[in-house]
Amino acid sequence: MIDIEKLKNHFKDFKKSGLANSQSIKNRTDAFERFCQKGIPTLKQEHWKYSPLSKDLAQFENLKFTVNQDKYFDAVNYEKFDHYQIVLKDGVLISENIKENGLEITQYKKDNFYEIEKNQILDFNNAFFTSGYEIKVDKNYQVKKPIVIYNYFSKDFEGNNINNKNFIFLDINSKVEIFEKNIFDEENLIFFTKNLDIELKQDASLIKYYLNSTNKNKTIYNFIRSKLEKNSQFEKFNFSHNVSSCRDEIIADLNGEHAFVSLNNIQHLSQKCFHEIKWEINHNEENTKSSQFVKSALHDDSVSAFQGKIFVESKAQKTDGYQLSRALLLSDQSKFLSKPELEIYADDVKCSHGSSSGSIDKDSIFYLRSRGINEVDAKKMMIEGFLAEVINKIKNEKIRSIFFNKLNEINNS
Prior knowledge:
By secondary structure, the chain is of the alpha/beta class. It has one domain. Helices cover about 20% and strands about 45% of the residues. The chain is built from seven helices and 18 strands. The chain has helices at about 5-15, 25-40, 55, 120-130, 360-370, 375-390, 395-410; strands spanning about 85-90, 90-95, 100, 105, 130-135, 145-155, 160-170, 175-185, 190-200, 205-230, 235-255, 260-270, 275-285, 290-300, 305-310, 320-330, 335-345, 350-360. It has an 18-stranded mixed sheet that branches. α2 (about 25-40) packs antiparallel against α4 (about 120-130) and α5 packs across α6 (about 375-390). The protein is globular.
């Protein structure tokens, strides 16, 4: 388990290291003190009751903070289609700034700290973060090509903890699509926290895709806080495959009429992989709409946990909130944990949630086998069809192909 007293010494060294902007020292110190007061997450705390973090952090008796000065990134990792590139190597932005008409990509420079009472890992990130990226899109500008974010974890990194903060801002009537992927050079032990703030002004549209695939020794915590104004839209598609240990947490605040958020996740897990999803959508204004859709295919001893909440403020009449989570249990040892929540203070709303888990339908397997398909291939077809429902919602053909290619690669391995 992380030694808090050792961590206090690490924080003193961190403040002196030059990794922290001097203007943010006070806010970082406040965040660190909150983390020490709250302590390490435990399964006894409701906010972390399904989280693998409390177990995983026991591996990090001594956290080591460092920065890799080498900025090399092999061009073979770049996607083949035309796109803007953001490269984070071991948590540090190494790609060049981009300043074009309507689009600006620079190093993170906001001094924006806020507390979520039950979230001490967010406090930890606010104390120890290194600057990631800022993406700003101007009023009435639609970015012509996707932005691809490469999170590259190199074999030369000598630390075991990476924390970064990032920011996306879309001004009135702007639009952008962002694809993010993790690249793991080696299976070294790392605790990685990532904090992203999103602000969408009126009529803005953000579509974000995330491919988080195949690592054996990484403990990953992804946190997103998004704020949506009138008529804005935020869509997110996430594909997780054999992530050793991961928690994806999103808070979406729908603060303007006709704001819309759609969160979609597919998980294909095996061995002892554990992936937790915790989403909270807050309908704070009337005529807002949300959708949460999760599908999981679970092999071996893998575990998937989903906590999804729809909150409706008293003035948020005409809210439309939808939530569905489904899991295929492909072994007797796999587990799917689900905790859907509705908290509604308005009268005229349409909100629903559903959750189910089960094995592959034997009648469907029998039907496929009767058509000359062997049992192994029949099961692969059933899994692909089950998960493809989410992928087919992606309108961007290039990204949809990447997700389908990944699914086919998994099924054929």
